[in-house]
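Input/output pair, single chain:
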Amino acid sequence: MEHAPRPARAALAAARAARAVTLDGWLAALLDDAPADVALAAVGSHARRELTPGGDLDLVLLHQGRPDVAEIADRVWYPVWDSGVRLDHSVRTIHEARAVARGDLKVALGLLSARHIAGDHAIVDELRAAVLSDWRADAPIRLPELSAMCRDRWEAHGELAFLLEPDLKEARGGLRDVHTMRAVAASWVASAPGTRITAAHDLLLDVRHALHTVTGRSTDRLVLQEQEAVARALDLPDANALLRTTAEAARAVTYAADHLWRRVDRLTRHSRAARVRSADGHGRQDGGQRTRRPGGRAREVERRPLGDGAVEHDGEVVLARGADLADPALILRVAAAAAQAGLPLAPATVARLAERAALPPVPWPADARDALVSLLGAGPAAIGVWEALDQAGLIVRLLPDWEHVRNRPQRNPVHRFTVDRHLVETAAGAAALAREVARPDLLLVGALLHDIGKGRPGDHSTVGAAVTHDLGTRLGFPEGDVEVLETVVRHHLLLPETATRRDLDDPVTVKTVVAAVSEVPGREREILDLLSALAPADGNATGPAAWGTWKAGLVTDLARRAAAALAGGTPPPVPEPGPDQLALARHDGAAVRVAGARITIAAPDRPGLLWRTAGVLALHRLAVRTARVVSSGAGTAVLDFTAIPEYGTPPDPATLEADLRRMLADRLDVAERLERRVRSVRTRPGVTVPPPRVRLVDDASSTATVVEVRAHDGPGLLWRIGRALGSCGLQVRAARVDTLGAEAVDVFYVVDEAGRSLTDPAALSSVRTQVMAVLR
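Output:
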């Protein structure tokens, strides 16, 4: 975490400590000859010895039922008022203070930190003990109330890290959240904030102190006109450095608070369930955290596999037993599994990955790159997982250029986020548009990198394109894909800026767009589609003022005109068998070869061969990454799959080969067994993915009907699609199946029973309806 230079901050901390000593002495002198049954206690910032120049004194005068207590109180309150210090005060007996605390959450929070100033120390100790006892006993009720109060405060004040003029105390990630975390720790539900959060709190406190000193006012909002002066008071270079440092501290607090409230919600939910079971006679509460079922058996926390190396444990994602920390794709694969499941990564798991897990070599292997795409493709669920990796320092280790944009403020009111968070938000928004492009992986990575040039000298689009070339190469993309990514980043503002500043009816306008997307020959339409999808994702992630229906309409119109100008390209060719596939197909009868992740079958062509084969792979928990189905002539079909385990070790090759041969001999009921497995797969509520898309491509083939399917990948997806095509009486003559991250991009060349393409509009509509039905 970045910090202001220690001398400046040490002076502020020393000033607060000295002020606390001075105030304590002064207040104690005001009660120097007070009766023995009276005590003065401080609550709030002075109780914590954190009172800044503009802070309020919050005092409680405690007594044991004295009738003249008002006169004693006046001896304290009037001198404080006369001094000009703002004062919040109360006079109560222990019983009264305890009763008020049980009914008023804010009073309870203040009294938890009460500190003796003057008078009878035993009275203050007794009050604190009573309030703590009540707080712990009432925790199952008070903590949910506190959680709701925090959420209301966040809604009202926003998130400190991403505000140009943040409230250092009340905004999410501010000082109030650390105070709340300490209150939760006092209930014994969670541990006290660690050293990292304490350091973040102290930094924010120093910024608040400097703000009060600079302005001479009691204000917690770091407004723009004061930021340069506050930065100088902290010996920081400028306002940007101040905002960046503040954002880093606030994000650390926010991340810790999010984990804390998940833990509180989980424990209070279990506690409520235990009380209900106890009231119904079906169980009993045990320590507020563990419950027992009838017969005395303890409640077991379920562990559910989510992917290779990742399991769900009590609402969080942890490493599977035996996870290979030397696997260079493990970090990203576990992160992707968490995001795809809509679950947080357990902090202990993130820490272990940061300390011990291997990083991908350069260039990245394909499985690491696919895991990154799968993580980004989870949409909004990816944001929290990305933040967890960032807080552990893993993002800058995976992508060193990320350091230039990390916590970088955007001094523009249009922007809602720091540069790095804007990039992640854009990628999350682009995930909803993945069905609109042929290469969702390039869309997601392009969205993540489109502003990567910010924070460097020069135009950020031009600089970012150069950085993207290096990062694309680092990620292991082929050179052609790197060039596409570079072009997308260079021209990511092309469509919105051209559409809003140029005359769309002027032929030069469309020519300008066509020239820009033609920088990579043969990929023109692909680049145009990527830019068309990136524009709304970027605009929506920027803020409400950056995107709306008017701009969206102009961009759509411009993209449509450019697409028309690019029309007439060559349709995708029908896949043809390679030499090794032809060699395998020369065997008489059926041939099956299982070689690591590659499974190849040559067999007499017949309806259902594709989906039955895909079903066998799914039964063995293999996820299909690629599939090619081609006809080798003479009635033989060649199916070539690349498949990897969903999790755990790969299946025994001999067993897999035996099942494939049983399927070819019609001695394996694939459908019935796979239906059972698909029904057992659970989906989590609240995890949303873009709707699937099925398109019948006109004029893409003269001998077959081309069915293009875009959908979120899942167990048995290829089996379901193939079976739906079969139910329409169609045979797959050729297929090209690719899984890019978590997105399936599949193309099927199908013919009817007579070997002809479909022409009847009703039959074409029925095919689309049947395939859509199984995808939903």
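The chain has 29 helices and 17 strands. The two ends are 45 Å apart (CA to CA).
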